[in-house]
Amino acid sequence: MKTFVKTTTFLVASILTTSLFISCNSSEEKTPKTPKVIVQNTIPIPKKVAAKVYQKPIVFIAGFDKGTENFYANARTYFKEKGLKVIDGQYSLEEIILWLNKNGKSNPFGEIHIVNKSNPYKGMNLETTIHGNKITAETLRRTITQGTLPTLENVVNNNSKIIFHASGLIENLELLRTLKDAFHAKENPKVVASPYHTIFGGKFSNHYLAKPFYVFYPTANSPGITDLSKEIAKKYPEETEINWYDALNNSEERYVGEAFTTQFSIPIKWEFDFHNTDNEMPNFKISEEVMDWIEQDDLLMAELEKYKIPVEKFRWNWKAKGSKLTIRGRATGLCVLKPLIKPYGDLKHVKPDTNNKRLYALK
Fold first, then answer.
1. What are the CA-CA distances from residue 353 to residues 332, 343, 349 (Å)?
2. What average pLDDT does this structure show over 116-144?
3. What confidence category does residue 42 fall into, taking pLDDT thresholds of 50, 70 and 90?
4. pLDDT tens-digit profile of 316-363?
5. Could you tell me if 229 and 245 are in contact, meaning their C-beta atoms sit under 8 angstroms apart?
6. Backbone angles phi, psi at 291, to 5 degrees
7. Pair 194, 359: CB distance under 8 Å
8. What is the distance between the alpha carbons of residues 363 and 360, in angstroms, rounded to a whole number?
9. 13-24 pLDDT, tens per residue?
10. What is the mean pLDDT of residues 155-171?
11. Residue 161 · residue 110 · CB < 8 Å
């Protein structure tokens, strides 16, 4: 009996041991192996962006010479010698924009040069629209507001530059801002101009810049060079290198860097109708009475303030016909120009580099 119990116990133990061994092997076989993870490079390879191709620089000679003038002829010669494409016959901003829209379909324009004779007191000789008013801040703003000026299409971008070779444009900041609005596009180009006057066809350089200084007197009533030289010296006390009397007697640069003088006129015309008003038409006897009457009118004085020229610097004439009164004023401006000269080395004009921010301002 004892033997049977021992044997049974041994068999049970053997069965349990075998069962555990088989179970252990079975567990090892059923355990899934950890899969190998293959890391793939999912960072996209950047594609090469093709460089933007621009058209070659172009130049609009936006005016024509009168009499013995040669400003535009000299500018045309200068840019042609540099190998730039010159476009003639576009005498208004409307024509320039239409030309750009028509010829800029393939590639955008990089540099657009616009040559126009101007000064800060008269505005530009360039017309707003064909046979329209000459460009001033007021006439151009009115043209934009009325919607008569075409819009610049996608023929330029943010890297394009519209470079004005127009003397005194930077001095007329309101006009420069309005010009920027006139060239508004999907991507606005930069508008570039120089605070200096642009000279083409000089005796010693075919293109250079000059710093301007101004003095005025009533047209046909000059006080004389001596008095004018004293007045301009008082107006610009910081300028000590110019002999004002000699400069006012010079009409051209006789040696490199010599100051010389150009002349221009500023006309004003006002018309008043007293037909439907309770105000009495003034009866002027002398020009001083005209000036007194103007100074009492805030609107007229505000218009004169735009020129920054005193009322006594104009020669005033008046004419009454029926209920209408016409007042005309004209001032003569003398602009002394001091050429920009290199501060070292040989005596030469500073090169008019449009990328030089000291010479050309970006707006």
1. 32, 16, 12
2. 92
3. low
4. 999 999 999 999 999 999 999 999 999 988 899 999 999 999 999 876
5. yes
6. -65, -40
7. yes
8. 10
9. 343 344 433 343
10. 91
11. yes
Q: What is the 3-state secondary structure (H, E, C) of the chain?
A: CHHHHHHHHHHHHHHHHHHHHHHHHHHHHHCCCCCCCCCCCCCCCCCCCCCCCCECCEEEECCCCCCCCCHHHHHHHHHHHCCCEEECCCCEHHHHHHHHHHHCCCCCECEEEEECCEECCCEECCECCCCCCECCHHHHHHHHHHCCCCCCCCCCCCCCEEEEECCCCCCCHHHHHHHHHHCCCCCCCEEEECCCEEEECCCCCCEEEEEEEEEEEECCCCCCHHHHHHHHHHHCCCCCCCCHHHHHHCCCCCCCCCCEEEEEEEEEEEEEECCCCCCCCCCCCCHHHHHHHHHCCHHHHHHHHHHCCCHHHCEEEEEEECCEEEEEEEEEEEEEEEECECCCCCCCECCCCCCCCCCCEEC
For residue 115, what are the β-bridge partners?
Answer: 61, 165
Nearest 5°: the CA angle 249, 253, 255 is 115
Is 174 in contact with 140 (CB distance < 8 Å)? no
